Amino acid sequence: MAALRRTKVTGTIRVPGDKSISHRALILSALARGKSRISHLLDSADVRATAQALRALGAGLPPLSDEFLVTGKPARELRSSDKHLDCGNSGTTARLLAGVAAGAGLRATFVGDPSLSRRPMRRVAEPLRAMGADVQLAPHGGLPMVVSAGALRDIEWESPVASAQVKSAILLAALLGGVRAHIAEPHLSRDHTERMFADRGVELHRSGTTVELPAGQVIRPVDVRVPADPSSAAFFVALTLLADDAELSLSDVCLNETRTGFLSALRRMGGDIEIADRREEGGETIGSLIPRPSSLRAIQVDGADVPGMIDELPLLACVATRAKGDTVVRGASELRVKESDRIATLVRNLQKLGADAEELPDGFRVVGASKPLRGRVETRGDHRIAMAFGILGALAGNAIEVDDPDCVAVSYPNFWSDLASVQQ
């Protein structure tokens, strides 16, 4: 393929703390019986929504900062809230805290912004109802969601979707309610909750795509240093692979095997990505990523690959515009119920920029080429869309404008300044 004008990337950066772990660090520290120190927490709109909702339920959380101390309290000391708990754009906040409310015997009403209000909540309401909680949803199956807990009972749940949020809601409800939970998924979803439970003394039994939580346990306090978010690091890995000249290192990145599907996909495409300083910390594997410019080729992605790279699929579509051949993603219908319908939003924007892209019912097809891509991207307020096209726009020869750059505050408030800092 013809070469673009030169794109140079250099530097060493630590992207912000992992969003999934940050949510869970706040929740578990607030519920542990003792003091937990949290450092490198992601201070973003989504994580602040979780902190505010926990405070409304009586948790003792100080203002968020780079390092702070949380004094937890037992679930019985939490309180119901007469005020609506505003989850903003955060599905993690709504679904995980629904599990907390159910397990702690609280009444809580969860609301969110228009995007979150459209997202499916039946997937978490149904198992909580099966456990004995009263969960009411809006007629369309989304927010507002009202949780009024009853006496909980053991649950055997076979989840129709691989969802870490649903799994975590059930585990939190069972732990706080003192009951047993057995959960099976069609594919393994992110397992941060299980790892963080184990690190805090909670017994779990895991086998393949199932997890079982025995009844009658408590959470002990543990200090946590939140690792860098692999979904945020992915943007700079992609940029470096597509660059002409690069010396970039990304430090302290979480390398949990349920989160590295995108790295595996990039390697299948021919990407040169070194992992250095690999170590175990807080139940997670952490290391530095050192990507290098590479000639990429198209790949096929199917449903088994999707859970491990669901957040990075918009970025994969953008990378595919510069890979030789046809990249096809299937089994990713979950993208239609994210912050936007990411399949439709992705393909529409790629086509507007001049890329050869096709929308599939459960995914997309993108044909790689070397021609310049130019135009204005409509993000629909979706942070992953904004950042993915921001990376594509950073390549020499492309001229791409993002209509709502500020929407990245949901997960990566300093994305644009970090992007500018590595470009030369």
Write up this protein.
There is one protein chain. The protein is α/β, with parallel strands linked by helices and 424 residues long. The chain is 32% helix and 24% strand. The chain contains 13 helices and 21 strands. It has helices at 19-31, 45-56, 91-104, 114-118, 122-130, 164-177, 192-199, 230-242, 261-268, 313-320, 342-353, 383-393, 415-422; strands at 8-13, 35-39, 67-71, 85-86, 107-111, 134-137, 145-148, 155-158, 181-184, 205-207, 210-213, 224-225, 245-254, 272-281, 284-292, 300-301, 326-329, 356-360, 363-367, 374-377, 399-402. A four-stranded mixed beta sheet has the order 1-13-15-14. Strands 4-5-7-6 form a four-stranded mixed beta sheet. A four-stranded mixed beta sheet has the order 8-9-11-10, covered by helices on one side. A hairpin with a 2-residue loop joins strand 18 and strand 19. Helix 5 (122-130) runs parallel beside helix 6 (164-177) and helix 10 (313-320) packs parallel to helix 12 (383-393). The model has no long low-confidence stretch (mean pLDDT 96).
